[in-house]
Design a protein that fits this description.
The complex is a heterodimer of chains A (499) and B (151). Chain A is mainly α and 499 residues long. Chain A has a domain of 224 residues. Chain A contains 19 helices and 2 strands. Chain A has a two-stranded antiparallel sheet with strand order 1-2. The longest helix of chain A is centred in the middle third of the chain and has 32 residues. The two termini of chain A are 42 Å apart. Chain B is mostly helical. Chain B has one domain. Classes of the chains: A mainly alpha (499), B mainly alpha (151). Chains A and B meet through helix 1 of A and helix 4 of B.
Chain lengths: 499, 151
């Protein structure tokens, strides 16, 4: 059994990997090895912590050994790292996807020069995301959000073509606005509560009548984290930024970054710190429903494969937000399960789009056709991802959407339930477009000589596809009790309702 | 006139720079080493040191400082600073925790050698920030040359 003292390694391993890559970049193979080993290391540690969870459901770690001062001064001094059910749930998803993406990038990134910069920034982004998850300090959360965001701005611009730079600039401007809003929210909260520790804040906010200032803080934090999560009306940067990045980074951005910086942060702050007030529920339901619709309907019109998938991400984040907004245990279970599924199938689909680009050299679906004969692994895994996204049983995506819709009906949000069903039909329509135009039909002459992608890329595609097929097994009671239920319990136990 | 005066600013600026650049560098080092006692620290001191090098380029024309401290060296020093910072933090785990101040748990206030690993962390940050900022400056110069050659 592992000791609690290794909690900081979630941040230290990727950071150390990134710095060592920068130092040893001249040695051939070092960036690949360090990138894969560091992400595998954090994934293994998260599995170990999942096993430990049964004995100690909540681990608190004091950075810099400041814990002794807490008792003397009667309040929390210094930064605490906290690991609970929700943290472990997110850590497992993020580090698994990061590991798969790192393996995929070893082959894929040979298309670009300066591979070491890619792995360096990739690990910095991973460090930032892991930091957001494990920190128990609100200002520290902001710092890690910034680390992950800054690395992602650079990664979006990695191709340094005109389009990529423009997308990155747009993303950087909107991301900076979001960070500023989050910082202002943190400042106001600090001025009111006198502490930055989230557990302390919860105690102070729960024990007192809250002033009108809190509504301002709600607005600031919801807009800031909403921008990071790309909820409609804050989504404008995503359809440019996600397709412009190299495919592994698109997979990271759509698969996990918007969830760690956006969805997780919203859940953590509004459920456990603010106790899920009624107004937030209404806002999340409304914005979630709008995101669902706008994302899906705009995705229908896209011909660029990656852009279509990016709009689809907006729509699917809408589902997660609606699930959270319901605020019942079933709704939250559905939201978290859908978050897991979306991470898997959206990473898979983005990696597939990268594989198609790698093999056929295009992303425009009008130019493709019949690729399934030449790219059996890529087309097979795309089909699996597409079925999971469309919610076809027995793929994993079906179960999570079903739970969200049942939870909506149970909470008597009938119109929203109907809307969610309607939008999942639109989802089937746009994702069938991908499989129909890219992989079925007649093979064009110019693609007569293309080859299937290299081995490491195929392995990562197959692994993710397997998770998409068998993800529904997470709902088996024994598995659910160790993985999903602890995360749901964390959010439920934080709910107090009402300002 | 010597060849030195073909490029850069006037003799007055060059002379003043030659006299002050050492002082600026020294001031940066002071800010770093005194960071745990007075306002300042690794970040501010690192910026001042980078500015000393940038000052040379401004006065004597581009490329002077790059001869002393090339682009390749900046990235090595920058990575070294970061690795040093992280190593110090990880060493603490052996003694009690991440970022544990294991050298001088009870330092005496006001003494130069008193704050344990904090001055060492300041030095690490100054390497990272100073080399990083100077590296960015060198990159911008290269870009500017590239742009003007294209025209």
């Amino acid at each position: 059994m592992i000791s609690e003292s290794i909690v900081p390694l979630f941040v230290a391993i990727p950071l150390g990997g990134a710095f060592l890559i920068a130092l040893l970049k001249r040695i051939k193979g070092i960036p690949d090895i360090f990138g894969v080993v560091a992400s595998a290391g954090t994934f293994i540690i998260s599995i170990l912590f999942l096993l430990k969870m049964e004995i100690t459901p909540r681990i608190i770690y004091n950075i810099g050994n400041w814990g002794g001062f807490n008792e003397v001064l009667g309040k929390i001094v210094g930064i605490q790292l906290v690991i609970d059910g929700l943290t472990i749930f997110m850590l497992l998803i993020i580090n698994f996807v990061a590991f798969i993406v790192a393996v995929y990038s070893v082959n894929y990134m040979t298309r670009y020069t300066e591979k070491w910069q890619f792995f360096c920034l990739f690990l910095l982004m991973l460090a930032g995301m892991n930091g957001v998850l494990i920190t128990g300090d609100l200002f520290n959360l902001f710092v890690f959000v910034e680390i992950a965001s800054l690395a992602s701005y650079a990664l979006v611009a990695f191709g340094t073509e005109k389009r990529e730079l423009e997308a990155s600039f747009k993303y950087a401007v909107m991301g900076s606005v979001a960070s500023l809003l989050i910082l202002m929210g943190v400042i106001f909260l600090y001025s009111y509560t006198g502490t930055l520790n989230m557990a302390d804040m919860t105690g102070i906010l729960a024990g007192s009548e809250q002033p009108a200032l809190m509504y301002l803080v709600f607005g600031l934090l919801l807009t800031g984290f909403g921008l990071k999560a790309a909820m409609v009306p804050f989504h404008a940067w995503l359809p440019d930024a996600h397709p412009s990045a190299p495919a592994p980074i698109s997979a990271m951005l759509s698969g996990v970054l918007i969830k760690a910086l956006g969805v997780y942060a919203i859940a953590r702050v509004f459920f456990t710190v603010f106790g899920f007030p009624h107004q937030i529920s209404i806002i999340l339901l409304t914005l979630g429903a709008i995101s669902m619709g706008v994302g899906a309907l705009v995705a229908l019109r896209q011909w660029d494969m990656k852009r279509l998938l990016a709009y689809s991400s907006i729509s699917q984040v809408g589902y997660i937000m609606v699930g959270l907004g319901i605020g019942t245990p079933l709704g939250i279970l559905g939201a978290l399960f859908h978050l897991f599924n979306h991470s898997m199938f959206k990473s898979l689909l983005f990696l597939d789009s990268g594989a198609v680009e790698y093999a056929a050299g295009t992303r425009d679906m009008k130019e493709m056709g019949g690729l399934s004969r030449k790219l059996p692994v890529t087309s097979g895994s795309t089909l699996v991802g597409a079925m999971s996204l469309a919610g076809i049983p027995p793929f994993a995506g079906f179960w999570s959407k079903l739970i969200i819709i049942i939870a909506l009906v149970e909470a008597s949000h009938m119109k929203l339930a109907a809307w969610a069903v309607l939008m999942s039909i639109v989802t089937i329509a746009y994702i069938l477009k991908v499989t129909r135009f890219a992989f079925l039909g007649a093979l064009r002459d110019r693609f007569a000589n293309i080859k299937e992608v290299p081995l490491l890329m195929r392995i990562s595609l197959i692994l993710l596809a397997l998770v998409c097929i068998f993800g529904g097994l997470l709902l088996i009671p024994e598995v659910r009790d160790t993985f999903l239920e602890p995360a749901v319990r964390v959010l439920i136990s934080g709910m107090r309702g009402g300002v | 006139m010597s060849k030195e005066h073909d490029r850069g600013m006037t003799v007055i600026v060059k002379t003043v720079t030659r006299l002050t650049v050492g002082l600026i560098l020294l001031y940066g080092i002071y800010i770093i080493l005194h960071g745990h006692l007075t306002p300042g620290g690794g970040f501010a001191g690192g910026v001042i040191i980078a500015l000393a090098f940038i000052n040379l380029d401004l006065a004597f024309g581009g490329g002077v400082s790059a001869k002393i401290f090339s682009k390749g060296k900046t990235s090595v020093v920058e990575a070294l600073g970061a690795v040093m910072f992280l190593t110090l933090a990880l060493l603490g785990m052996k003694y009690g925790g991440f970022f544990d101040n294991f050298l001088h748990p009870d330092g005496s206030a006001g003494q130069l050698v008193s704050a344990g690993i904090i001055p060492l962390e300041n030095i690490a940050i100054s390497l990272k920030v100073g080399a990083g900022l100077f590296g960015i400056f060198l990159t911008l110069i290269v870009l500017q040359k590239f742009e003007s050659e294209k025209k």
